[in-house]
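Support case: zinc ion complex. Customer-provided input:
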Amino acid sequence: MTTLHLTHMAALAHLAPPWHPERPDRIQVIERCLEQERFAALVREQAPVASEAALARAHDVAYVEATLAGLRDGALPGVDHDTHVSPGTLEAALRSAGAAVQAVDEVMTGQVRNAFSAMRPPGHHAGRARTAGFCFFNNVAVAARHAQAVHGVGRVAILDWDAHHGDGTQEIFWNDPDVLFCSLHQWPFYPDTGAVSERGPHDTVVNVPLPAGADGGPFREGLAAVVLPRILDFRPDLILISAGFDAHWRDPLADLRLTEADFRWATEQVMAVADATCTGRIVSLLEGGYDLVGLARSVEAHVAALIEPATGRTWEAGEAAPAALADAGS
Ligand SMILES: [Zn+2]
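Agent response - structure generated as follows:
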């Protein structure tokens, strides 16, 4: 079984002012990194555009229509001051969401074991009817809804390890008992949501706040002791990762201190859970990550793990918290 890698040149044409951290270089350094010989086994495809119907499964129809019109016109009313629109933004946003859809299609039909999309703009701050924090369409939400609607997937688990809370994703699935949303993030921090007490009416929201300055220790502990047991108990048919890498110690936007080894370890742990619950089906979508060196190293570690079988033991759903795995990292 193989790992799919999706990207597209259109990701480079979504432009912001030169000082802006969410910039085309992010994709360029990732692609340069993934050209290495060790990644020769990747199945490489171009990200297609998402259909309006796919977007409207995660967002209000009126929001999709207004956002598409605004992006075509080159201006979106009401967008926050951090989120910029350029002539290339429309195609980039459509292909960023389209990559998520394509990845779900290939993973759910067994063409590939798992998938990683290196596209931008990111998505996890976009709400049902809200553009925010560099995000227009919520790519991971589009992926989850596509899996449910087109592939008949019963339960989807979303793991968001971006340094910022995935407020848009949490909002979209707040009332959905069939989608488990788990987030580890710096807190208190932008966008201010993500407290432990935010659990949702069906107890399907799991927030693990990390204090500024936290290194891989609390991150690994939160993943192994809180998040992974919840995903195991949920028995998802598919696991999606909102893979932001701005928790890396070099990142200028956040104050966490993870290393690339932490991301490799986290990826392997999630793969072990995926093996135990959903025959290894994982779709990973790039979110943040703004230090180009930290981003490239982290993606390298993440994708290398996705290609190779997880080295940890396989867990059975329902067994005790796999806290012992916390010290099994590289
Ligand atoms: Zn972030």
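The pocket of zinc ion is lined by residues 162-164, 244, 246, 287-288 (CB under 6 Å).

Case will auto-close in a few days if no follow-up is received.
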